[in-house]
Structures are given as C-alpha cells and as structure tokens.
Amino acid sequence: MAFAEAYGAGTIDDSAEAALSWSRDRAQEAGIRTVTSGTGAALRLLAAAADAKAVAEIGTGTGVSGIHLLHGMRPDGVLTTVDLEPERQAFAKQAFRAAGFAGNRARFIPGSALDVLPRLADGGYDLVFCDGDLMECLEYLAESLRLLRPGGLVCFEGVFADGRTVDSAVQPAEVLRLRELLRAVRESTALVPALLPVGDGLLCAVKRS
C-alpha cells in the first residue's frame, strides 16, 4: 500500500470506517469505482482547510467520497450531492446515517449535473468536488467557477486516467477532454492549481479572490 493510502486509513472513527467499507462493497457490486483512502484523506483535509459549510458534489456514487467530505466539513455544514442514479443515492443516504451524520447534513438531488448545477446559488459554495462524466468536465469547471466563493476550492477526481493522460498513444475522447481540463485549469488566471498524486490523480484549484 502506498504511503498516501496508508496515511489516509484509520483516521476516522469506527462507525465511519464500517460505513465506508459497506459503501465500497455496494460500489463494487454495482461496478462503480470509488475514491481511494488517500484521496478521501485529501478531501477531508481540503474541506477542513476551507472551513467548508457548503460543499457541492458531482457524482454521489454509494457515498464513499461524501463520508470523507462530511468528516472534513464544519459540524453544521451541508453536502449537496448530485447523481443520475437515485438508487445509488439511497445507498449513500444509508451510509451517511451509519457513519453518524444527521439527515440534514446532506441534500440529495437526482438528475444530470448539467441540469442541476445551474439551479444552485452563485458564490454559495466553499468546495465543489467533481467525480462525474469525464466528457462534461469542462462544463463542470465553468459551473464551479460560478458556484464557488472567492477562496473556494474545485477538485476533479481521476485526472490521471490510469496513466493515459500522459500516454502518447492514441487515446479515447474522455482522455482528450481531461487533457483540455488540465490545460484550462493551468492557464486560468482565476485559479491557483495543484495536482495531487493520490488515487488516480486529484486536480485541485483555489478560486482567486
């Protein structure tokens, strides 16, 4: 196990660890990839560093990333999480409850992210975590810039694409889109970016004041 993955493990309480294990099992059964322990630890840290009270998540899955985000957020913080699959959100809701979070700590919105995000408040979020359709990542970036307060964070999961992002071989359209995302974030004058080598790559950027 890599150092980052080992360091991310065992830093939350037993009920949350059990809930994470249950969520990972449900994800495996459904054929969904989840964030790694190292990525989860990074998300907790970033949510805590931002003193996050409002977080938007694109891609609820079965709740693994949400548990990590909620652990880093303020005790009165609310996670707004969007997913196309309501049954996955039902698993996440169970997992959040098992991890000890009150029902009012999370707002579940089923639907397409590009339909839901425009309805969320301008400048109303401290952190936006993107783990949705890779082909929509540039649109997620544009919406995130609108949603974030100055000093807020946007994070994109899976930007290494199992090493294909830097592979010179012919790549599928979603990898080409990730390369566009990386370039757009790097060249943006509105963002201060960093690429964290945890999991399959976590691209983070702070919105300038």
UniProtKB/TrEMBL annotation:
Species whose genome carries this gene: Streptomyces sioyaensis
Pfam families the record matches: Methyltransf_3
Source lineage: Bacteria, Bacillati, Actinomycetota, Actinomycetes, Kitasatosporales
Transmembrane segment boundaries: none
Gene3D superfamilies: Vaccinia Virus protein VP39
Any one GO MF annotation of this record: O-methyltransferase activity
Name assigned to this protein: O-methyltransferase
Alphabetical list of CDD domains matching this protein: AdoMet_MTases
Keywords in alphabetical order: Methyltransferase, S-adenosyl-L-methionine, Transferase
Biological-process GO terms, alphabetical: methylation
